[in-house]
Structure formats: structure tokens, C-alpha cells
């Protein structure tokens, strides 16, 4: 018997990340050591492990977000009837890309057909994008832009090439985890200030969205600033189908879920 090193045992084992269930489908990211760590998006029917998966983002695309250095939120996805819309941050140029596929109703990943070619929708620039979502009503991507040491909530139209991001809100320091209500009328996110990390002290912010897509009536719903007598942090807001907003917060000293029945 010979010693089997960890490099040999795991050197070609893909790392699976960020799984999400989308109706009758499951989509995930796959990081491949044999491709120098390139990350790609994979999809197959949910609860059908015997069916082959389909790669959506072929090489040289490398799905990675570098916002706040450690990254996160490299993709956003939406189902539009028989179409799949995927947006991703490509580490090759740090830009936002999008592409659509047809054939979701067939429940066969190998039969999914690309309806469009990959399209770069953000212009190259000295910035990092990430943590985004798709606003289907307004056909745009909404997410976080880190630029010159500050974070901004921005939007980009899904049908235009090489745009400059449209700034919707500028944070004092940092922002993350944007979440859009089911009716598209409100946006929640987490905001925090130096010197605190988001798990030390942060605020749940909420804004209404105007018909033109701007953010208005920005207010804090939970959490605190770092200089509060009792610093409180919040994490990962999620909208429920009934219009309530749920967020994790630690005012008790432990992480617990807080539900805002009528956040508006």
C-alpha cells in the first residue's frame, strides 16, 4: 500500500456550491480543479439524480464575484415560462453577462437550447459587481457595486450591451443581500459601517420602488449602527409569499428570525 495524498484524492474532485431549486429544476455552481479552479453553472431536473446535468456557462467563462474581496452572489437567475434567464459575473473581465435558454417544460437538461448568445451587459471598469437579483417586471439586474471604497445599489438593463451601472442608492460604507418583494414594489438589504463587520452591527434597510425604478423612502427596520449601546446585527432578509419580511437578528444574544408582517 502507498500513501494517498489529499492532492491526489481531491485534485480532480469538483466542489459544488450555491445550489438553488427553481421550480422543477435545480441549478448549482461547480468549481473544477482540473480546469484551474474555473467555476461554471450546471442544471438538471430536480429530484432526478439519474438524469445528466447540463453545463450552461462553457469555458472560458469563470463565474466568480470579488466584491468585498471574498466575493459572493456571482449569479442571478429567473424562470420566464419556458425560458431560463441567467446572469453571472465573469472573473475574466469582472463584468456582468446574461444568456437565455428554452426548453424548461421538457424536463430534460440535455434538450435545453440556448436562445441567445452570451451578452455582456456591464461595461468594463474599475469596480466589482455582485450579490444581484433579477427584477423581471422592469427587465433589469439589481445588485451591489463596490467602487472607490464604497458600496452602491445599482441596476443594469438586461437587454443592453456594455452599460454603465445606474446608481440607485449609495451606502455610507457597505451594503449587501438585496431582496426584492414578490410584487416588485419594495427592496430590502443589509447595510453596515466601519469599523464593524456585518455580524457585529448592521441594519436592515427597506425602500419603496417608484414606477421609474428608483428607490425612495429609505428607512431602517432592524439592527443598529456600531456606536449603539447594544450593537445588533442582521443577516439575509427574505420575503415571504404573503408579503412579510423575515430576517435573522441577534438582539437576544443569539441568532433568531424576526418577521415583519407589514414592512411597508
Describe this entry's structure for a reader.
β6 (83-90) and β7 (95-102) form a beta hairpin. The strands form 5 sheets. Strands 5, 6, 7, 8 and 9 form a 5-stranded antiparallel β-sheet that branches. Strands 1-2-3-4 form a 4-stranded antiparallel β-sheet, with no helix packed on it. A 4-stranded antiparallel β-sheet has the order 10-11-12-13, with no helix packed on it. The chain has 264 residues and is mainly β. The chain has one helix spanning 6-10; strands at residues 15-22, 25-32, 38-45, 54-55, 75-80, 83-90, 95-102, 113-114, 119-120, 128-135, 140-147, 150-157, 166-170, 174-180, 186-192, 203-209, 215-223, 234-239, 245-249, 256-260. The radius of gyration is 20 Å and the shape is globular.
Biggest sheet descriptor: 5 strands, antiparallel
SS summary, helix count: 1
Distance between the terminal alpha carbons, to the nearest Å? 66 Å
Q: Estimate what percentage of residues fall within beta strands.
A: over 45%
Kindly state the percentage of residues in helix.
under 10%
Q: Give the structural class.
A: mainly beta
Beta-strand segment tally: 20
Weakly predicted, low-confidence segments: none
What radius of gyration results from the CA coordinates?
20 Å
Q: What is the string of helix and strand elements?
A: HEEEEEEEEEEEEEEEEEEEE
Amino acid at each position: 500500500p502507498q500513501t494517498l495524498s489529499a492532492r491526489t484524492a481531491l485534485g480532480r474532485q469538483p466542489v459544488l456550491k450555491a445550489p438553488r431549486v427553481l421550480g422543477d429544476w435545480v441549478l448549482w455552481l461547480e468549481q473544477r480543479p482540473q480546469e484551474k479552479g474555473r467555476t461554471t453553472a450546471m442544471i438538471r431536473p430536480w429530484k432526478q439524480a439519474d438524469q445528466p446535468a447540463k453545463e450552461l456557462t462553457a469555458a472560458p467563462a469563470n463565474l466568480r464575484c470579488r466584491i468585498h474581496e471574498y466575493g459572493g452572489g456571482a449569479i442571478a437567475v429567473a424562470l420566464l415560462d419556458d425560458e431560463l434567464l441567467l446572469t453571472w459575473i465573469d472573473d475574466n473581465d469582472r463584468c456582468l453577462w446574461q444568456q437565455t435558454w428554452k426548453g424548461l417544460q421538457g424536463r430534460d437538461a440535455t434538450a435545453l437550447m440556448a436562445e441567445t448568445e452570451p451578452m455582456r451587459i456591464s461595461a468594463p471598469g474599475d469596480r466589482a459587481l455582485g450579490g444581484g437579483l433579477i427584477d423581471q417586471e422592469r427587465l433589469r439586474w439589481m445588485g451591489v457595486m463596490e467602487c472607490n471604497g464604497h458600496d452602491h445599489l445599482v441596476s443594469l438593463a438586461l437587454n443592453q450591451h456594455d452599460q454603465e451601472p445606474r446608481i440607485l442608492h449609495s451606502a455610507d460604507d457597505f451594503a449587501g443581500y438585496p431582496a426584492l418583494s414578490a410584487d416588485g414594489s419594495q427592496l430590502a438589504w443589509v447595510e453596515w459601517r466601519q469599523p464593524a463587520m456585518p455580524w457585529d452591527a448592521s441594519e436592515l434597510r427597506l425602500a419603496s420602488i417608484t414606477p421609474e425604478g428608483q428607490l425612495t423612502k429609505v428607512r431602517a427596520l432592524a439592527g443598529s449602527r456600531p456606536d449603539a449601546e447594544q450593537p445588533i446585527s442582521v443577516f439575509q432578509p427574505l420575503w415571504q409569499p404573503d408579503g412579510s419580511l423575515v430576517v435573522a437578528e441577534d438582539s437576544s444574544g443569539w441568532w433568531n428570525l424576526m418577521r415583519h408582517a407589514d414592512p411597508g
